[in-house]
UniProtKB/TrEMBL annotation:
Pfam families: DndB. NCBIfam families: DGQHR, DNA_S_dndB. It comes from Nonomuraea turkmeniaca. This is DNA sulfur modification protein DndB.
Length: 364
């Protein structure tokens, strides 16, 4: 008689769409043994999942390694192709929700949601085996065939919406730059009350002038490669930088004083859009590398006010900040926009901007 070996999981039984499912906990060290990824060579139409994107795995591994005491993973969802048994705990009534789920070890598991988490956890355990005894929630469904597994994948991802970058910055308490951006957005007179804290784009009639994600992107450019500043000094320099910039854009001040409306400024001028904020951050980065004294930046930045920031100035901004009359945030457009501003300020172009500028001039 062949021995019958089983996994035993303490589980909760539930019903969803008239189908029984189970929720349990799985030790991390068992994930790679139970959920084997072997569908890569199958045609897409014969798989129950998308192809594993191996480029995503190192990022998740770094997240685990950098936050060993406070990482968070949502549950893995899997289908089980096996004859399972659910035994309620002793004394529990028939049909009880808690008990032990027995799954044959030769059963087949198909991950409907969470294959990248599984792969990253497997890789992290190679260098951090102590994580193996920690656990992750697993939702088990009974496998009803390939068509059902494919439908589950489609359903699980149908309404998945990635959180906006702005709200990510707002809620991220690990990233020092996000913390700095929140402080600046909430306390600087330049931004206070005029920053959209959740969305990454502004509705046409919004009274906000900036988005939190745009300010974060500008700060990322501003402090790129500068690591010798403590948090307090970094915040002080960011505040000083924007205060100088603000003096060059009277329309920003007019919005705060209610002499102009935000929608009018955004519609007619480009200097409150993320591409320009990032460009200004790149220019500020050059000034920071040459001097940490804000007084030294002022003579250069005071030339900003003499630049025509109008959307109607297609001769300058067309093909740079504007594509087909719409603001573009593509990397090359950021380089070209920065190059135009930098040239106006009589600053030399770094190699990446010079290459973009040379290519632009050949085409125009």
């Amino acid at each position: 008689m062949t021995a019958h070996y089983e996994y035993a999981f303490p589980a909760i039984r539930g019903v969803q769409a008239e189908r029984v499912f189970f929720v349990s906990m799985c030790p991390l060290k068992l994930l790679s043994k139970m959920f084997v990824w072997d569908d890569d060579d199958l045609p897409t139409e014969l798989r129950a999942q998308r192809t594993l994107n191996k480029g995503r795995i190192p990022e998740i591994v770094r997240y685990i390694e950098r936050n060993p005491s406070n990482y968070t993973f949502s549950a893995i969802t899997a289908s089980v192709d096996a004859s399972i048994r659910f035994v309620p705990y002793d004394g529990a009534a028939h049909g009880a929700a808690t008990g032990v789920l027995y799954i044959p070890m030769d059963g087949r598991f198909v991950i409907n949601d969470g294959q990248h988490r599984r792969a990253a956890i497997e890789q992290a355990l190679k260098t951090h085996p102590e994580l193996g005894d920690e656990s992750i929630a697993v939702v088990f469904f009974i496998d009803k065939g390939l068509e059902r597994c494919q439908q589950m994948f489609a359903d699980l991802n149908r309404h998945a919406v990635r959180a906006s970058k702005s709200i990510g910055v707002l809620y991220d308490h690990r990233d020092p730059l996000a913390a700095l951006t929140r402080v600046v957005a909430l306390s600087s007179h330049v931004f206070r009350g005029f920053v959209e804290m959740e969305a990454t784009s502004l509705p046409k009639e919004s009274r906000r002038l900036f988005t939190l994600s745009a300010i974060y992107g500008a700060h990322k450019a501003l402090f790129d490669g500068i690591s010798d500043l403590d948090d307090e000094l970094q915040t002080k320099l960011a505040m000083a930088f924007w205060e100088i910039v603000d003096t060059q854009f009277p329309e920003w001040q007019d919005v705060r004083q209610k002499r102009m409306r935000s929608p009018e400024v955004r519609a007619d001028l480009i200097h409150s859009h993320s591409i320009v904020l990032t460009a200004l951050g790149r220019i500020g980065n050059s000034l920071l590398h040459s001097s940490k004294n804000p007084d030294d930046w002022r003579p250069t930045l005071e030339k900003l006010c003499s630049l025509d920031w109008s959307r109607a100035n297609s001769r300058l901004w067309g093909g740079r900040a504007l594509i087909g009359g719409r603001v573009s945030k593509a990397v090359n457009n950021v380089l070209l926009t920065t190059a135009a501003i930098r040239t106006h300020l009589d600053l030399p172009l770094p190699p990446d901007e010079q290459r973009a500028e040379d290519a632009y001039r050949k085409e125009h």
